[in-house]
Specification:
Layout lengths: L1 E6 L6 E6 L2 E7 L1 H4 L9 H10 L9 E4 L7 H10 L4 H15 L1 H9 L6 E4 L2 H10 L6 E11 L2 E9 L2 E9 L4 H11 L8 H8 L7 H4 L3 E3 L5 E3 L13 E2 L6 E2 L5 H7 L11 H29 L3 E5 L6 H4 L2 H4 L4 E3 L9 H13 L19 H11 L9 E4 L2 E4 L4 H13 L4 E4 L13 E4 L7 H10 L16 H4 L12 E3 L17 E3 L1
Parallel strand pairs: 1-4, 4-5, 6-13, 13-14
Antiparallel strand pairs: 1-2, 2-3, 6-7, 7-8, 9-10, 11-12, 15-16, 17-18, 19-20
Helix pairs in contact: 6-14, 7-11, 8-11
Length: 520
Amino acid sequence: MKVLGLNAFHADSAAALLEDGAFVTGVEEERLNRVKHWAGFPEQAIRAVLQDGGTALDEVEHVAISRDPKAHFVDKALFALRHRVRPSTVRSRIANLRHVSGTGAHLEAILGNGLRARVHQVEHHRAHLASAFFCSPFEEAACLTVDGFGDFVSSMSAVGRGATLTPIDEVTFPHSLGILYTAVTQFLGFPHYGDEYKVMGLASYGRPEQLPELRRLAQPATDGRFELDTRFFRHASDGVTMTWPGGAPEIGPLWSDRLRELLGPAREPGTDLTERHQNIAASLQALYEAILLHRLRWLQKRTGLTKLCLAGGCALNSVANGRILTETGFTDVFIQSAAGDAGTALGAALWVWHQELGHPRRFVMEHSYWGPQFAESRVIASLASRLAGFDRTSTDQQCGEIHLTRDDCEERLCRDTARAIADGHIVGWYQGRGEWGPRALGNRSILADPRRPEMKDVLNARIKRREPFRPFAPSILAERVGDYFEQSHLDPFMVTVYPIRAERRAEIPAVTHVDGTGRL
């Protein structure tokens, strides 16, 4: 039995394919159309997973989409009436929900096949929960989702046992840790979808001197919950402009003038970053961590469980994740590689397989390599289409400024690559299946020598072309983690930041962040 999971008409659109409950293949639309955080229908991703899985659309028995327009419908309507939400905002949301409801028709129109599958609409945060627990190695675990919003919810907790997830509580609109982080990210002059990662990296350069002021924006509440002071935000009173139908997602300003009154002038995008901006970033990160840990401590006491599954866009805040094991009572944490919205494509499929169809579990995500792969013939064809004079039969040739060598000896290839890295060269390493999720984990990676102090600046300026304060991740043999890091808990998906041992920091300066940490 085959289940096609989709995250569609939402940021980070993606498709995932299950076969008899096991993850076969999945890919984000952005990897194929090169539009980051694509928010439309994942047409190319659907084609890719069906082809990769050797499946035609008419062989798919169930389609699961990680949105449910019916979820919290009464709550949405009452909120709109009470707060007099602008008609334009209501029309925009209704249009988006109609797109979601028409998923089956979209599939038939695009692929031109008869769709015999039953279409399931899975509430967004239940899909997040399923993407975490049903991919984990745990038979029993506490589960938590944290993000901006999905189906009127920003956070949901649950207990997972066997093939069942039982929700415990939820935090609903307008209260959201994701909205808090995004609003202050915008205030700091980073307006694009996904810029929160930049502020997380910037936070290490500052001191949380504005934490007393920022505590006015959000506070922990009873029973592990939290609340925003909505006077500092626009999403509850004015509504927020969101563009989702296709292309990169765009979100209008989330913060209100009251935030400017509290913190002073906002930073204009592209202007210099000052110590004040660094301190605001540090204060935001400190506030986020305090509230997240408050919710996790409550969840651990509420369930009595010591294993945690975490999902949602905020689960990619790797700095906060690095504090979970030492400060919450949890002793083991699982965060799958596509913890953000792309992962809900897989989560929706898993929710249908286990919760709606009642099948037992048979899958554990032990690696992230679920994306498309390409045969050598495709690589050769790509080179031939781009390089004048390329000879398909030659093992050593020059094409303009490009020197190409083919070597079928893997041992020699690895030795030569290691020597190039040690000599200060930068290597683009490409092999096997693409990674599922936002992290480069060895199959589509830029490799460089972490011992060279200048390497971080070189990579940021020449290769990534991004801000100089952005850190790079150390890749390390599993058995050597404790030799370099203050924790030895393994992280195959690069979602936690740990302190690097003080005596090792000078040895690997290119991957040691300004605060002495590394994203393992």
